[in-house]
Design brief:
mainly alpha; Growth Hormone, Chain: A; 2 domains; 16 helices; about 75% helix; about 0% strand
């Protein structure tokens, strides 16, 4: 019997070692090992494994209180924690550039904060503490902050002849695998108790913190780069050289190429739909579940198909990203609009599942197309800053969509109708930008 156990252990070890070698070869392929991009890919894998563990642990626990009370708590903490974050986020990147090792420590801080909050959450779940909601939403804030800070690191690690589309497609694929691994391990531990899934997440984020700090030093380097503000003229009457928040944001948006601005507006729509669907559907299923169908099953199917759509778009991203990226982003927004409208008109399990699939597909395709436009239309010296700034805007769009989902009455036809209207507005604004860009310069004076 001992011999059998020994053989089984050796077999598991061989399989694990073989899988680790293949994963390592995949992450370092194409020069990614020499530039350090492989370390960023591995970090993203570990980060999303931790996020998945947190999601599994909190499923059915954070929203266990009465629906009205839960919605007010979520809305309150979103406003308290994300409003200042949304205002400051566009300026975090330039601020960090003034400090050595800024980005690595900023990324590590977002992960260390999540590790601490996961430990707090584990104790809060076990003792039914009042810290449950603040800690859970703090994890959400830190996750969004991680996405923003990491976005400025990836372009600095690109190997020669590598594009942002290729790098982000590999990152996204590693993230999908990380979510599957983290979710599976957390699901097994959740049988003992949800707090054990959170303790697993704590350990994962501790590892991720170390990986973040060990990223290559070139992550902190801004050699040869310029800030977006450095290329913008001062507003009229701005002799002091200072801009207001509105002037800074407006000037930064106006300085982007028209095609990128139109794509960014479309991407805002797809990202808003993700935030809206996540929170609105969670509360809708608790208050008004579909007849004869478990609310947990519906949520699982919608989120599962969204993940499937995201994975499919990730696999397609490398080949599609450089082929008319404007059309890819526009297609993603139109598909989301049609799916949301059909869900509002013919609300059922199947339209919800279709909406989940299209939402996951659309958000990743819009990301691929936007990355390709940044790579194509933005000068090298500005590319890293523009990419990070766009990612900040898209993270705030997720927050806005989630806030709308919380604020609306739990009426499916109304909720998904509003979502469709928002997507239609984004489509119109995007089309207007494209039409204005094609208009001759003197057409307005004619």
């Amino acid at each position: 019997m001992r011999k059998g156990a020994t053989r089984a252990g050796r077999a598991v070890k061989r399989v694990t070692s073989s899988g680790a070698r293949r994963a390592r070869a995949w992450t370092t392929w194409g020069g990614a090992g020499e530039t350090g991009l492989s370390k960023a890919i591995e970090l993203h894998f570990v980060n999303l494994a931790g996020d998945a563990a947190v999601t599994v642990a909190l499923a059915g626990t954070v929203f266990a209180m009465p629906t009205d009370e839960a919605r007010s708590e979520v809305a309150r903490f979103l406003l308290l924690t994300l409003a200042p974050f949304a205002l400051l986020a566009p300026f975090v990147g330039p601020l960090l550039d003034r400090f050595r090792h800024g980005r690595r420590w900023a990324i590590g801080t977002t992960l260390a904060v999540r590790a601490f909050l996961c430990w707090v959450l584990a104790d809060a779940l076990a003792s039914d503490s009042a810290w449950l909601f603040p800690a859970a939403l703090g994890c959400l804030v830190a996750s969004k902050a991680y996405s923003i800070t990491r976005s400025s690191a990836v372009p600095r690690l690109l190997p020669p002849h590598y594009t942002l589309v290729q790098a982000n497609s590999r990152n996204a694929f590693a993230g999908v695998v990380g979510m599957a691994v983290g979710g599976g391990l957390a699901g097994a531990l959740a049988r003992i108790g949800p707090e054990w899934s959170l303790r697993l997440a704590f350990a994962i984020f501790v590892v991720a913190t170390v990986l973040a700090i060990r990223l290559p030093e070139r992550v902190d380097s801004s050699t040869g780069e310029r800030d977006i503000d450095d290329t913008l003229p001062l507003p009229h009457g701005g002799g002091s050289g200072r801009r207001t928040l509105r002037q800074r944001v407006g000037a930064q948006v106006g300085s982007l190429p028209a095609g990128l601005r139109a794509a960014l507006v479309s991407s805002i729509g797809t990202r808003m739909l993700v935030g809206f669907l996540t929170l609105f559907l969670t509360f809708l299923m608790r208050q008004h579940p579909l007849p004869g169908t478990s609310a947990t099953l519906v949520l699982g199917l919608v989120l599962g198909t969204a993940g499937l759509g995201n994975a499919a778009a990730t696999l397609l991203g490398r080949s599609l990203g450089t082929r008319r990226p404007e059309a890819i982003v526009a297609f993603a927004l139109v598909a989301d609009l049609v799916a949301a409208l059909l869900t509002a008109l013919f609300y059922s399990l199947w339209t919800l599942v279709a909406l989940g699939l299209v939402t996951g597909l659309g958000v990743q395709l819009s990301r691929v197309g936007t990355d390709a436009l940044v790579q194509r239309d933005v000068p090298d010296a500005l590319r890293t800053r523009v990419f990070a700034w766009c990612e900040t805007v898209l993270q705030m769009a997720w927050v806005a969509g989630g806030a709308i989902g919380i604020a609306l009455p739990l009426v499916p036809e109304l909720g998904f109708g509003v979502a469709a209207a928002l997507l239609a507005a984004c489509l119109l604004v995007s089309l207007r930008i494209r039409v204005a860009a094609r208009r001759p310069a003197g057409a307005d004076q004619a």
